[in-house]
Amino acid sequence: MNITCDNDRFYMQQAIELAKLGRFTTTPNPNVGCIIVKDNQIIGKGYHKKAGQPHAEVYALQMAGDEAKDSTAYVTLEPCSHFGRTPPCADALIKAQLKRVVIAMQDPNPTVAGNGIKRLSDAGIEVTVGVLTEQAEELNKGFLKRMRTGMPYVQLKLATSLDGKIAMASGESKWITSSVARQDVQKFRAQSCCILSTRATVQSDNASLTVRDAELPDDIKQIYSSEKIRQPVRIIIDSQNKLTGNENIFKQLGETWIVRKQDMPVTKPNTKLIIESSANKNINLTKLFSLLANNNQINSIWVEAGAHLAGALIEQDLVDELIIYYAPKLLGHNAKDMCILPNLQNLSMAPKFRVKSATMVGEDLRVILKK
Amino acid sequence: MNITCDNDRFYMQQAIELAKLGRFTTTPNPNVGCIIVKDNQIIGKGYHKKAGQPHAEVYALQMAGDEAKDSTAYVTLEPCSHFGRTPPCADALIKAQLKRVVIAMQDPNPTVAGNGIKRLSDAGIEVTVGVLTEQAEELNKGFLKRMRTGMPYVQLKLATSLDGKIAMASGESKWITSSVARQDVQKFRAQSCCILSTRATVQSDNASLTVRDAELPDDIKQIYSSEKIRQPVRIIIDSQNKLTGNENIFKQLGETWIVRKQDMPVTKPNTKLIIESSANKNINLTKLFSLLANNNQINSIWVEAGAHLAGALIEQDLVDELIIYYAPKLLGHNAKDMCILPNLQNLSMAPKFRVKSATMVGEDLRVILKK
């Protein structure tokens, strides 16, 4: 019994590693990996590369061919049971006459939600669900949150000194963290559906907010050539209609979406306007995020902005994950704070997180915290 | 050759672990451990427990007895060559007819400084110096700095939110970090020669700045009963002569030293006055520290105070080590900053450190940085 269990984890771990290869490209689809095993030999493997292209199971079954009969498949997410752009994977596994399917976790997508498991089971295939579930959850935290709640998974990135400062009083901020930390940020950007920022950041830092493929991991570069690298959508909050279209950001590859209160379009190629027209003079962030998840299939938002947006997101409890890069220096009390929280009155109300990891990135310390 | 070398490190590691048992009590002496080995058997071990009591080598030789002849000793610091409160350890090792002595590092104490090594060598004993030197340095960073520079080793402790805040605007600060982190602080306090604070902290927090022996590690409690636990001297900066003697701190076990610009004594038992009478109206911290090292044999200073003293120490480049406890919360821009640096004008001038470790302490993150 224990041996089976260890075997299951062993193969599922490999399926998860495979799934990760798609993490820069599958959005809005989840990352999925599949391993097919017979007599303790891997006879098939595959992962989902890009929306519209075949699912992980299809690649793995293709590789296994007729050998798939009586084999065991390890899939990081419940196989789909519906006709989307591709036929249902559950049916493909049934057709290939598998003996057993091990699934890391059920798919909360309402079009699947246990139907894939039921379909396999009804066809007489032995199904095991719940192997390395935590890792499988982590793999698709954006997709899963959107499916479960209708809201995207929000990661707020901050680059600060030890004393929580993001710029000198003069505004000088280039650079607080090291170039290694800034490269690390590239990998997070590349995995996200979109990068959220503000008009102020775009204009004052002349930010491009793109993914520079040269800074991606080598295993990814081997699979995706630079022109296949996906540029996350840049979403810029511009509630006062101040963006002119001449900013650096509009000269970059990929799309830029501008969020305004009213219809004042910026006529640039690859630019789209999102109107968030609630009564408040500021953009209603909860409404915006809901709209992005439900209308635009945005699973995850990577936020790079100033202390005001950071504070607003925190106060409105919209942040799932904080990623803080601490440079090992002190900037003192005159420097600019990393987080504006105007409504925080006493200590017991302070927004709290849980430290998930603390890792050296070059000379800086990267701390990841979750809600 | 490699085997010998690994053996040397193996035994020296044990000598270092032994030395650590004295870390709460030996001040102003260094921590030293000694292991005596013959035919790959440990036949003697000892460590220095307290100033005035025998050195590590004496205990180890006592245990080894006549077997010490032709054995190898591992000592974490060069054996002394002078008559202090105890006779020279080098002579004891020679008299016991050891074959070889392995020493982690030379003692920079001018009364030793290579003389112990020379004495052993002159007597025909094979001497190896430089095994696990880095660990041996870490063991006595206070003592070594004082011997080398005439200044104490300064550790500045800060307990802060993720955004570098140490209190709400209202002054509310109990508690930002968790009780586990506060217990961790106890261990650092207990290892230091003294605890430095200010009149403001002593009065506003009603701080006692003592070591509560219940919170010390079990191995230490087994060796030192609670009454044998050393209370580090509390040194309080009171440049405006505002301490009355009625504060909580004067009711505690151990000594309190008050630092003033002029002779206005506080008549309390176990209280001493230190006059730092330089022309400046503030206490000259460099002068004070030099005086503490040279007149009072203070090896190390553990600083627990507010943002002003923290900033002054940083600006005057007097901090060797920062110990920051980050509570996983955000207090926002209105809260109080951890470090007042009035003279910092631009980013390139920002005081820089190197991260040595980042460790979870309960729910908080402890980051240790060195200059």
TrEMBL record, chains A, B:
Obligatory cofactor(s): Zn(2+)
Enzymatic reactions: 2,5-diamino-6-hydroxy-4-(5-phosphoribosylamino)-pyrimidine + H2O + H(+) = 5-amino-6-(5-phospho-D-ribosylamino)uracil + NH4(+); 5-amino-6-(5-phospho-D-ribitylamino)uracil + NADP(+) = 5-amino-6-(5-phospho-D-ribosylamino)uracil + NADPH + H(+)
Any Gene Ontology biological process: riboflavin biosynthetic process
CMP/dCMP-type deaminase domain span: 6-128
Positions contributing to NADP(+) binding: 159, 175, 201, 205, 239, 306-312
GO MF annotation, one: NADP binding
Pathway: Cofactor biosynthesis; riboflavin biosynthesis; 5-amino-6-(D-ribitylamino)uracil from GTP: step 2/4; Cofactor biosynthesis; riboflavin biosynthesis; 5-amino-6-(D-ribitylamino)uracil from GTP: step 3/4
Active-site residue numbers: 57
Keyword terms: Hydrolase, Metal-binding, Multifunctional enzyme, NADP, Oxidoreductase, Riboflavin biosynthesis, Zinc
Binding site for Zn(2+): 55, 80, 89
Keyword DNA-binding appears in the UniProt entry: no
Cofactor annotation remark: Binds 1 zinc ion.
PROSITE patterns in the cross-refs: CYT_DCMP_DEAMINASES_1 (PS00903), CYT_DCMP_DEAMINASES_2 (PS51747)
UniProt binding sites for substrate: 173, 189, 209, 212, 304
EC number(s) given by UniProt: 3.5.4.26, 1.1.1.193
Listed Pfam families: dCMP_cyt_deam_1, RibD_C
UniProt-listed PANTHER family: 2,5-DIAMINO-6-RIBOSYLAMINO-4(3H)-PYRIMIDINONE 5'-PHOSPHATE REDUCTASE, DIHYDROFOLATE REDUCTASE FAMILY PROTEIN (AFU_ORTHOLOGUE AFUA_8G06820)
The protein's role, per its UniProt record: Converts 2,5-diamino-6-(ribosylamino)-4(3h)-pyrimidinone 5'-phosphate into 5-amino-6-(ribosylamino)-2,4(1h,3h)-pyrimidinedione 5'-phosphate.
Family listed: In the N-terminal section; belongs to the cytidine and deoxycytidylate deaminase family.
Protein name stated in the entry: Riboflavin biosynthesis protein RibD
